[in-house]
């Protein structure tokens, strides 16, 4: 066995540390919150170190058990997984910081901490996995921890939403697993890169493409199979909504992206176009539904349905490099902005006792920082500069023009206008002056500032975007460049 | 090959059942049958040609899958019980997903 | 909506879903029948590397060594599911109704037999079929039998002993993995000389955790049954 | 057609039939019992496929424990009596 380069064990710590922290947080409930926060900080450091490593040395493989693919399981890190690990750590850190004060105002017990740590472990493991079956296990760990967190809001509709989410996600996982079975019996391996080398376009590969794409579309809430998302994301406790909308729902898309570059590279254009069309419909449908909602958290949840649509515009535009760059920056921007909006909404809910949009009158006076966080997050969702979402959309439009398919560019712009409509609808109510007696019970500053910090990061993401974009499209992405050049 | 065909038959029957199910326990039964179907495909395809030796990798994947399935089943059952136990909670104020 | 309309809709849904799954079945069957006849897979590779794994049973070698990382995550899934169930658990566990002499005497004979079988499976798992999951499953089933027969002792497992038993499997995996990394090898890469011992220790720890987690899931469902009040429930939206 | 093939054919048909019955049976209790029987038949199929490890896991965990969980949950359903009225 070869000696390891120094520093290359970061991939291991990114997975083991949250798991170990979950065990400690379970055994010692008193220090659970501290353990979880310490772990989130460490995850930020480890993710940055890993990103630095893959930027310097290129994509990085790690053979668990020392066997190496295809017999063993490999972990794989490149700039794409690196930046997503960083943003996951940032969102989790802010959300858990917020949760300390949030949970004190609810009946939710200390088991929140180990479960959220399992969720973080699942997310990191998924982002680093290079093995089709291992991805199935990480998807299950992720879904089950997400469902568990939704069910923490112990009311009828949250429990019903959690059950619906669980059943949808089991069925989706099984479709994915059946696809894995077909791929394994076609190519005889499970490692994604090895699959890419050996897979040929037989009917079994076609069936696997259909099954796995369908399963991941359900898990990733692509229109029209997003039915489980609005309930699960809006009735969950607010920090959970933030984690789910910002991070968890992106994970299936990430898996699909990886498959698109590995075993399914060279899938016919029609499949990409279909996914893009569903994405476009998601943007329109989700935005229109968001406009109709009476409750703030449901509005934000439908906004997520719409924003997921943008991610799937990647598939028809996959030929040009700026599509991958655009969609990556978009994921980062949406993760930060959407987490900020859900945390802000949770703050309003806790202070006002409700989240009815038309009764948000006093928010501007009572909760200025919270409202600022929501407004800045909303501006990012609209895609105004200098937000990351703006850069992401810009790159997607660029990709559309590069391929001469300006129709997708129209969708991107129209979606921005629709999102402006629903964000301003909320802000309009929030800035209304009202003479009702002022309720003195403010939110703790920690909750407002956690949301605001995320919103500020989302807004200024565009400023840091240039080096980020170079990372994703640059020489570091050799594997992607290599695999995507394998056209039939 | 017989068993893999039986596997996809189970997958399809259970898929239909889970789409049409209204009672949670029925849906839970259906996803369990569905997972059995997938497992059957996973193992049986390794023996699609007579005389092949058993491949231990799908066996291990199925054992992993069985444990994941029982975890999810237990969670779903307890969620169902919570759903039945909560009566005081608010009801249909604004149902998500109910389109115009 | 009036009833006839509803019936028509239900019939349409039935017909549509039947048609859709029939198409899915046809597609999948065609895909499967068109698979190449020659063997694919990792069976040969597993056989070639088997001597260095510390397990003579290839399935155990895959579960605990080649793909031990999957197994680690899978035990995490089990534990997570139990924690999720704990957050939803209400009510007290009531003693079971009088089980009757037959069940009681059956359980008193069967439980020790199952214990022996589980021990054998665990021990034999290295070389013959069996291992942690099978042994854990059978132990949990023995516990279920005892509970149903009215024995109280499975329920007496609580507090710290319970928590330690629950985390034993996952902690053992993590400790072994980290120890190896600190020794300069890849995560979960066991030294060939000690592999058999390491696998046995991991299997014992995993068996305990799996058995206790599965049993506690069952007890939680029994408890949920006791605390229930009547209401109709549906996974459909109202 | 040899005996082994005939046996496999019958067993595969039995599995599909039991799965079908478990999902369409009107009584939920019968559906669960059929599901347990289905699990046992699956165990036999694993033996025929030379997957003894899987057979043991299936019988202990899938048929045994999942069946026990479902039956325990059924005990709760039965008292509210709202689960038995669909075809």
Which keywords apply here?
heterotetramer, A: 488 residues, mainly alpha, 2 domains, 2 strands, 74% helix, 2% strand, C: 238 residues, 0% strand, globular
How is the secondary structure organized here?
The complex is a heterotetramer of chains A (488), B (100), C (238) and D (87).
Chain A (H helix, E strand, L loop, with lengths): L9 H18 L4 H26 L2 E5 L8 E5 L1 H26 L7 H17 L3 H19 L5 H32 L4 H7 L4 H17 L9 H7 L2 H11 L1 H12 L7 H24 L3 H17 L8 H32 L10 H4 L1 H15 L5 H15 L3 H25 L14 H29 L4 H7 L4
Antiparallel strand pairs in A: 1-2
Helix pairs in contact in A: 1-2, 1-4, 2-3, 2-4, 3-4, 3-10, 3-14, 3-19, 4-5, 5-6, 5-10, 6-8, 6-9, 8-11, 9-10, 9-13, 10-14, 12-13, 12-18, 13-14, 13-18, 14-16, 14-17, 14-19, 16-18, 16-19, 17-18, 17-19
Chain B lengths: L1 H19 L3 H21 L11 H30 L15
Chain D lengths: L2 H22 L3 H21 L3 H29 L7
Helix pairs in contact in D: 1-2, 2-3
Describe the 3D structure.
The complex is a heterotetramer of chains A (488), B (100), C (238) and D (87). Chain A has 488 residues and is mainly alpha-helical. Chain A has 20 helices and two strands. Chain A has two domains: 7-267, no CATH class; 268-476, no CATH class. Chain A has helices at 10-27, 32-57, 79-104, 112-128, 132-150, 156-187, 192-198, 203-219, 229-235, 238-248, 250-261, 269-292, 296-312, 321-352, 363-366, 368-382, 388-402, 406-430, 445-473, 478-484; strands at residues 60-64, 73-77. Residues 474-488 of chain A have low confidence and may be disordered. Chain B has a single domain (2-85), classed as Helix Hairpins, CATH 1.10.287. The longest helix of chain B is centred in the last third of the chain and has 30 residues, at 56-85. Residues 87-100 of chain B have low confidence and may be disordered. With 87 residues, chain D is an all-alpha fold. Chain D contains three helices and no strands. The radius of gyration of chain D is 15 Å and the shape is flat. At the B-C interface, helix 1, helix 2 and helix 3 of B face helix 1, helix 3, helix 4 and helix 9 of C.
**Strand fraction band of chain D?**
under 5%
What is the overall number of helices of chain A? 20
**Mean pLDDT score of chain D, rounded?**
85
Ends apart, CA distance between termini of chain A: 37 Å
Beta-strand content estimate of chain A:
under 5%
Taking all Cα atoms into account, the compactness measure Rg of chain A is: 21 Å
Number of domains of chain A: 2
Low-confidence stretches of chain D: 80-87
Poorly predicted runs of chain A? 474-488
The gyration radius over C-alpha positions of chain D equals 15 Å
* Quaternary structure annotation: heterotetramer
Order of strands, widest sheet of chain A: 1-2
Class per helix and strand makeup of chain A: mainly alpha
